[in-house]
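WARN no homologs supplied; continuing
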Amino acid sequence: MEEQFILRVPPSVAERIDRLLDENASDDKSLDLSFSDDGRNGTFVIGDDHFPASLLDLPGIVESYKTYDDSVLIKTADVGQIIMVRDEGDPAPDVVEYRHGLTPPMRDARRRRFRREPDLNPELVRRVEKDLLNIMNGGTAEIVDTEMGEQEEVGDGSARNARKKAAPAPPSKPSVSGAGANAGEPERSDSDESDDSM
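OK structure emitted
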């Protein structure tokens, strides 16, 4: 597969690149992109003008395809980076990941579409990992969380109090004596209640 990236330039630079790619144009023949030692900041040169550039990671992967016969598409690369060329006065981005995607629905994609990374205490992670390995080897957890124990005690206390309260008695059915309205008829079950019209 090929290595590809997205090149985003200011509108004035885009017009000059269009002229450079036009076969009839004879000016602005030089086009160069070079990066400093950190690999994230560099310079974009077109003609005699120098523009600052930054390499940023996209929030998602974009696949690129090409075709030879206008019917079959062949995947050529996974594009995961964008080179942002900016004007001289524009500030450099202070992050390595671009906040937005390439299309309008992916605007502010990192905040809107992806889950936040959890804030984990490294000491807690080590302790839980040690306890899990201990349990898997047939032992028991050495450290019990005191907050959880307190919550269980509070929960047990409320459960005990709930058990002490007498449960309300279910409502009793009224006693029906055998000398009721249908004393002469035998008791019928639901299955006996069939249509007598036949």
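The longest strand covers residues 49-67.
OK
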